[in-house]
Amino acid sequence: EQQRLKIAVLPILDALPMYVAQENGYFEDQNLEVEFIPVGSAAERDQVIASGQADGMINDLVSTLLYNQDQTQIQVVSFARTATPEFPQFRILAAKDSGINSVDDLKGVEIGISEGSVIEYTTDRFLEAEGFSALEIATLAVPSIPVRMSLLDSGELKAANLPDPLSSLAIQSGASVIIDDTRYPEYGNSLISFRKSVIDSNPNAVMGFLAAIDQASQEINADPAKWDNLLTEQKLVPAPLIGSYQIPTFPIGSLPSKAQWEDVVEWGLAKGFISENISYETSVNSNYLP
């Protein structure tokens, strides 16, 4: 019997393997019917998941932490995307004419972020890795990415943390990279997660989904230049970048390490976003990788 999964999908590059798997029939090969539920923001995605309207999603370690702070609601089953030494996922950018030319120039400068998110986490960790004290890190909450980009472009924000490929668009408009996770790839990633109840009741569907994603990721990695039509159709890359933007390498069959999870837990505790430790074993499930 064909099994069904509903996936909440943001218009982000990280979802490209899902669309490739759908277009090329890899889900069907796994006896799966996959329905994508488009969502416009992380908040909308979380509402759709919490209400049970979707079974799985692309998210990140910080949001997993917040989901599971009282009980295990979701489990990570795979990376969706990871930063590599060649391809960044998050960048702290300086506005043109801001006078910011080096990491040290960011001391005490307000950096546009979204609070309680992977954006805030990577901002802190990049700067701490460069020797900043907590007092030297200044941030300003600008939750909307388009607003953050606009304020950076106008110079009203001197610096901001933006996800790729939107950061590439900001660079095209004159912003400059100060630091990103090509230097610290352990901090930049996104995940495929499912509601725990779905994993428990439908493990074969989850396993088949990941097998299809891996097949699609291998195909993308083998020929990253052939997906412009799909990127345009699904609005995964800003239109001005189509044709020049280089698709990153997608991870194959991998999960965040215990050290990566525990670092996010430590950060969440220090920030007061969670009140007690959450174990790696309850939130990361390694049983479904192909």
Walkthrough of the structure:
By secondary structure, the chain is of the alpha/beta class. The chain is built from twelve helices and ten strands. The chain has a five-stranded mixed β-sheet.
Structural descriptors:
single chain; 290 residues; alpha/beta; five-stranded mixed beta sheet; 12 helices; 37% helix
Largest sheet, described in full? 5 strands, mixed
**Structural class estimated from helices and strands:** alpha/beta
Strand order of the largest sheet: 2-1-3-10-4
Q: What does the average pLDDT come to?
A: 96
The quaternary structure here is single chain
Summed up, the helix count is 12
Shape descriptor reads globular
Percentage of residues in DSSP E strands: 15-25%
- Strand element count: 10
Q: Level of helix content?
A: 25-40%
| Distance, first to last CA | 21 Å
Taking all Cα atoms into account, the compactness measure Rg is 19 Å
Q: What letter string, H or E per element, gives the SSE order?
A: EHHEHEHEEEHEHEHEEHHHHH
Question: How would you concisely characterize the structure shown here?
Answer:
By secondary structure, the protein is α/β, with parallel strands linked by helices. It has helices spanning 16-23, 26-29, 42-50, 61-67, 118-129, 145-154, 166-172, 196-201, 203-222, 228-233, 258-271, 280-283; strands at residues 3-9, 32-38, 56-59, 74-82, 90-94, 110-113, 138-141, 159-163, 176-180, 189-195.
